[in-house]
Amino acid sequence: MRVAFVVNDLQMSGGVGVVVEHARQLAGRHGFEVDLVLARDQEEPSWRFPGLGDVPVHGMDRARSGDYDVAVATWWETVGPALELPAGRHAYFVQSLEDRFYRPHEAQRLAAALTHDVPLHVITEARWIAETLEALAPARRCLLVRNGIAKDVFASPAAPPVRGEEPLRILVEGDPEVWFKGVPEALAATRSMSAPHVVTAVTPRGRALDGVDVALGPLSQRELAATYGEADVVLKLSRVEGMSGPPLEGFHMGATCVITGVTGHEEYVVHGENGLVVDWDDVRGAARALDLLARDHALLHRLRWGALATAKGWPSWEQQGAVMAAALRAIARRPPRPSGPFDARLLAELRGGIEGHALVAAERDLLRWRLAPMLAVDRALERPAVRWLSRPARRTWGAARRRVKR
Amino acid sequence: MEWQERITRETPPSIRIEHELRYALAAPLIRAAGTWLDLGCGAGVAAAAALEGDGPARAVLVDASADALGEAARDVAAGEAVPVEADLASDAGLAAVRAVLGDARNGCATCFEVIEHLESFIGVVELLVELAVERAFTVVLSVPNDAFWPVESPWHTTMWGEGSFEELRRLLPSEHVVAHQLPLQGSSIVPQGTPALAAPGFVVREDAVPSHLVAAFGPRCTEVVARSSVAHADLAAQRRWERTREANLAFYEDRIQWAQGEFRAWRDYLNELEGKLGLPPTTAPLDFP
């Protein structure tokens, strides 16, 4: 069976890592011929991505001459390129509802949302995504393939160690510059703690951040596993996640978690059994939860024990590779999706999006109208003669302008 | 820990009831089918008990163990019992099953506690879906809720729980029935000289956790209905089983120690001879891993 996974790039993000692992499993264990296809226009890459094994990487030009059983989009920007590839079936591996990565005024938000209306077979990695997409388009039946865990890398201890009086070891993971990862909020929560603690932050560039005792990153998976192994608790206050892998990886190494009720956490976090779920925008609440873990060693140990048990019940990449193989074979057998209901949905989404953007445009026009007198004064002040005469007043005018613009 | 992967007459009564109930769930479908396919039939103990001597015209019994198949073919009630020794994780094994089934239609297929044992379960799931969709078989399958405890059985190659079952469910035809097998616990008091309650009621819990997850699909899947099985615990059998297990364990541990002692003595003798012959002594490890 020939499968193309279309990716935007091979930067080692969590989403791309999942696709790469599936590609490796399919090629290595299930006899699939898998290509990774780079959607962005570029020359045929001559290099091989480390860890890809025998999975070839192609550009679009070469892939367009391929003959695939299934071509799979893996990110909203890759849906169009995936549809360009000759394939018996086209599918969409949805790892999150990606419109939520963008703020309401950002145009990409609408574009990402529209891709969910394209009549493609869908594979998702979390039940909430499948249920949401099926609620949006009841005719659709999503396939589910959760992310596996590299059990050899995140090799669990037999039991978590009972901790003594040492400070609570907290691990914060994520890109502090990505608004929905909640890293600044997590660090604010640790700064609000009253109990002794040590904070380790794993970020893409290992930046020193306020309140962080140990700044690490980027880390290999093995280094990351070792870092989780030294933590008592993974703190994750994300606002948007597909399945949120880091706490689950932490579970495998015997760490519990403090987490917001972010989408995907329900796949494996049970409040009071293997972690603590805290409210949105509740930095003090998160700090109190951490203080509780720092002081109640029995509770901490019970949660870590529960976390480890959850991890033991979580499937490996080998198992999930088999599920992905079964899902792709099922898609190859299924008829193409009828486009009618999806077209209607897509048009409705487009109309809603355009109305939303019309509101943004109207607000901008209103603001421009309000600023018009100020801009006129600005233009007048730029005339050389007036410029010379008004020099003493310019500083006051500039401050007033800045205040208005703010 | 003791792992009971094959149901035999020596299996603890509580586990036998669990298995028998699954076959009892499918029994009306099995009896009405022209052909019944039982994947992973084992020794057929639970199926034979559930069918109570009233089976289908033809039973295709599939297992990896020839010994178990022999017992199943002997004990399971059917007009004709066809044993098929096959590894269901292999293409050859699945081809053997397809060949024996021939062009059978409107049958029933059961696949209880099999999928978790297979290195690759893709072929079995595809076979069952094919039977349901293309040949009007009604299929009943089950997997254990291992992830809940989590049970790390050395015989299970994959880990199943509610999440994995949801993945499987989405691969099945859209018309299907999902059922949870819920363990029961209880006790009864019987004044001497009075009959025992035949079917005591039990307290239902809304949040009861399943021990097994069951799916039925195919044309008659809606005929799968709620069913419970309650029996007085056979403590005598349970005690016999546990004592037998403990005695066997102690016996074989003793034999292993004896064998290791003998092995050591032979090794010393061998090394002595090697020394006399001027050869380097053999140093392969003596202990079992």
SSE layout:
The complex is a heterodimer of chains A (406) and B (289).
Chain A: E1 2-7, H1 14-29, E2 33-38, E3 57-59, H2 60-64, E4 68-73, H3 79-84, E5 87-94, H4 107-115, E6 121-124, H5 127-136, E7 143-144, E8 168-173, H6 183-191, E9 197-202, E10 214-216, H7 221-229, E11 233-236, H8 245-252, E12 256-260, E13 275-278, H9 283-295, H10 297-312, H11 317-333, H12 340-381, H13 384-389, H14 391-405
Parallel strand pairs in A: 1-2, 1-4, 2-3, 4-5, 5-6, 6-7, 8-9, 8-11, 9-10, 11-12, 12-13
Chain B: H1 13-32, E1 35-39, H2 45-51, E2 58-63, H3 66-75, E3 80-85, H4 91-101, E4 108-112, H5 122-135, E5 138-144, H6 162-169, E6 176-181, E7 212-217, H7 235-276
Parallel strand pairs in B: 1-2, 1-4, 2-3, 4-5
Antiparallel strand pairs in B: 5-7, 6-7
Helix pairs in contact in B: 1-2
Unreliable segments of chain A (pLDDT under 50, ≥5 consecutive)?
A: none
Strand content of chain B: 5-15%
Q: Spatial order of the strands in the main sheet of chain B?
A: 3-2-1-4-5-7-6
C-alpha end-to-end distance of chain A: 58 Å
Structural class of chain A comes to: alpha/beta
Largest sheet of chain B: 7 strands, mixed
Given as residue ranges, the uncertain stretches of chain B (5+ residues, pLDDT < 50) are: none
Sheet with the most strands, sense and barrel status of chain A = 7 strands, parallel
Multimeric state of these chains? heterodimer
Please give the alpha-carbon distance between the first and last residues of chain B: 18 Å
